[in-house]
Amino acid sequence: SAGRNIIAFGDSLVSGTGADPGNDMFSIVSGEVGVPIVNKGVPGDTTQDGLNRLETDVLNNDPRIVFVLLGGNDYLRKIPKETTFKNLGIIIERIQEKGAAVILMGVRGGVFRDRFEEDYQDLAKEYKTGYVPNVLEGLITSRQYMYDSIHPNDKGYYIIALRIVPILNSILNRQTY
Hints:
By secondary structure, the protein is an alpha/beta fold.
């Protein structure tokens, strides 16, 4: 990648809703890896909202590596799954066209059965992105890790951060500054 910035792009999970200041997952990842991460999380964003702000929040900010975490609000708002994953594909394509690496992050699409898991996996394979499956896996049903029914607390974000660090490190180790 020719860019300089690592950018976290997404919704309230990216912004760190439910965490104390400095305890959102990307602040933790930044501290663990020793590189700054620009946080462009906006609570409530759908994949369409992400598309609408992609240019200003990501593409115009010299991206080197971009985390993409969107889709949960699409599920909650009953946006058709096809629309969600079409939008995610466009977002990934536009980031990669800019020359940046993408780390796709999945969220669960369903209460009893995850209707999104295969689609996130397929996108990651198709576009050859880094991939963190269902970021809330094992957390959402455990009150000790959750701020509310959707957002982790400091402990929950720490666990997610530990899932992200090896994937980011593997990409950083393949790239040179």
